[in-house]
Amino acid sequence: MLNKSRLLSFIDQEKEFTLHFCEGQKLVHDLAMIHNLKGKGFAYFRDCVLSAIPLITLLKFNENLGLYIDNKTPYFLLKIEMSEAGEFRTLLLPETFDEFPDKLSGDARLTKLVVGQPTPYTSIININGLNLHQVVNQILQDSYQINGEIYVSEDADQSAFIMQLPRKNWDKEDTPTNPKTLEDFKKEVLKELQVLFKKGINDEEEIIKHFEGLGLTKLIGKDLDFKCNCSFERMVSGVESLLRGHTVEEIFQGDDSIETRCDYCKTYYKIPKSEFLKS
């Protein structure tokens, strides 16, 4: 039985770099049970999710992040929505998607929303000619102005986010004359990170021990949970929006109820006509 998926954060001894490790085997298993994607389509979906999940580490308290990719050829729509608490929901349409495109052609939209604030921050990135991992790393560079990279394992359902922290006291006398670069840090950890990927370790304590052996210290860990905020009331509101251009009878076509389904979690809702005949 797989342990719950976790997002673990570590820092190096000099406090110049962080490494965030996503152990996502349970997470990917659960998505496979929810979504009807097969073969290469699910493999691509898996890579998308594991690439995006480490972005949770950039969120502050009560912040939510949405990553939306609208690809033209082949057509697909990807939505990944996540919160600072580690909750997320995602979908890939069409449900019969069975490709693994090397290069994307379209736009990626990043939306960050703070609970209680009506207007989200939104940025749009043109993704023509980029692959999936380049898109996520470009988001780090352009939207967050971060010097870092995200890596997805080819062996296990895991990913990692390596980031250089902003330098403090750069004008002080005790600043190192030859500060370590991101490339230096990557040389130190990437080989061992690949070893961990190949092992596919699912136990948190073993993962922590592995990184402590590299001189890293654990900062925090949080559960990763698929959580959809759909509800009967939201589905009724969705059907209600159709009344702007159609009558109740046109929508229900002589039936006493219609069945709707959430694209994220695939939950079905039976909506009775009586909901729309109330005075």
Q: Quick one: CATH superfamily of the largest domain?
A: Hsp33 domain
Q: Ends: how far apart?
A: 52 Å
Structural class: alpha+beta
Q: What's the rounded overall pLDDT mean?
A: 90
Fraction of helical residues: 25-40%
Major beta sheet summary? 6 strands, mixed
Total domain units: 2
CATH architecture of the largest domain: 3-Layer(bab) Sandwich
Radius of gyration: 22 Å
N to C succession of SSEs: EEHHEEEEEHEEHHEEHHEE
Kindly identify the CATH topology of the largest domain: Hsp33 domain
Q: Into which percentage range does the β-strand content fall?
A: 25-35%
Strand order of the largest sheet: 7-6-3-4-5-11
Unreliable spans are none
Number of helices: 7
Shape: elongated
Number of strands: 13
| CATH class bucket of the largest domain | Alpha Beta
